[in-house]
Amino acid sequence: MPVKIPDNLPAAEILESENIFVMSETRAANQDIRPMKVLILNLMPNKIETETQLLRLLGNTPLQVDVDLLRIHDKASKHTSIDHMNNFYRDFEDVRHKNYDGLIITGAPLGQVEFEDVIYWEHICEIIDWSQAHVTSVLFLCWAAHAALYHLYGLQRQVLDKKRSGVFCHQRTSIHFPLLRGFDEEFFAPHSRFAEMNVEQLKQHPELQVLTESDEAGAYMVLSRSNRNLFVMGHPEYQKSTLNEEYQRDLNAGLNPDIPQNYYRGDDPNQEPVARWHGHGSLLVSNWLNYYVYQLTPYNLEDMSGITPWESR
Question: In the record, which residues are listed under signal peptide (predicted)?
Fold first, then answer.
């Protein structure tokens, strides 16, 4: 949350240059406050595990957040009971007439499937298109980030020979973005995917900004210049055991997976995993919700026009 300071206080310029969020008394007095309304489109097989991970991150902010859960279709889930889905999830027809402050679209185990071959591809494209007029800011995670970059900007992913799995060190490519406030120069984040985006192609796109990247895992956080779309190529929401559970699942399926990199103590899968990303994962979601949702969204959700990029403020 911002530090409220007197109008024209000399320290304001210094603090802003250090990427510290300050707000003048005048601007603070004109702010209206209400709960943030966030929609989560959950594409992961284990719905309960993923919703818990995301709600944990959203609950780690000082903002009040009202959450709606959305499913991509009404077909039975192999890993989640139909009662849970019917009781807690909405269909798109139930929300298409609404506006939301934020939308989170999760990853999906579809990294080796061509986008057009995904059974709900047309439906997810419809939801992405809808979000550009009905949501202040959209957070795309992992597969959803690749899918949205392809659908919105025509950028192709590169399918990998082997799954990229592990916890990787990342660097900031810029410091003067509200999304990166509080981030260390280097930080860790988990990845679990079969594809990646070309970093140079992302950097050259006039509508996109690469904020963080990894020498080993490529681009991690990419922001549209409109502030409408944040693409995160990894899984900041993962809990400590998630990569191990995926590794054991793939082993049991006879897929001969590589050991997740930089994850187990001594890179030994018989040892305990080390969680080194929870702090920055929480900070990422907190900064997104504060600076790219709360600070930009209209008080009246019926008015989605006029959202101003941070560099123009």
Answer: none
Token readout for 36 is 């943030």
Tell me the CATH number for domain 32-240+277-312.
3.40.50.880
For residue 158, the one-letter residue type is Q
Note if 122 is an active site residue. Answer: no
Residue 301 to residue 51: CA distance in whole angstroms: 24
- Token couple for 233: 């190529």
φ/ψ region of 142 (left if φ > 0, alpha if ψ in -120 to 50, else beta) reads left
Check whether 192 is labelled as a binding-site residue: yes
* Active-site annotation holds for 73: no
Cα distance between residue 298 and residue 306, in whole Å: 9
Are 136 and 101 a contacting pair, CB within 8 Å?
yes
Asked whether residue 98 is marked as a ligand-binding residue, the answer is no
- Tell me the pTM: 0.89
Note the pLDDT tens digit of each residue in 14-63: 767 766 666 677 776 666 678 889 999 999 999 989 999 999 898 888 88
142 is catalytic: yes
Q: Report how far residue 187's alpha carbon sits from residue 170's, in angstroms, rounded to the nearest whole number.
A: 5
